[in-house]
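Good day; I would like, with your permission, to put a structural problem before you. The record follows directly beneath this note:
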Amino acid sequence: MILDTSFLIDLFDGRERAFDKGVELSESKTVQRVPSPAVMELSYGAEFGDDDERRNVRNALRMYPVVEQTETIAHRAGQLLAKADQQADGESGIDKVDPMVAAVADIYDEPVLTANIEHFGRLGVQVESY
């Protein structure tokens, strides 16, 4: 299962549905992976918080293996975004991070766990919500 930033934020904020999904994944021993672009987004947001928030993000991320961006993932991300933009007649409105997360899902053949079903669906990868 590829964990998108939206799920991780909701989980860290203690949102019940995200927490319940996290428990379900843990109990079923589902491998959970965090793409490095999600780490960037979380780190960016934490910089607007205090030292406790930055420490909490760092500690929470230690629970998951991080999938580093590779040239293969970057190429696939570009392909997925280009296809979505072409299908939208030029501009899908999808940011540049979501395709990088989607590419990890595509390469690992695992769904993205996200609250942003629309964007990931348009990127053509399996999506799961909570």
Observations:
- The mean pLDDT is 96.
- Residues 2-128 form a domain with the Rossmann fold fold (CATH 3.40.50.1010).
- The longest strand covers residues 2-3.
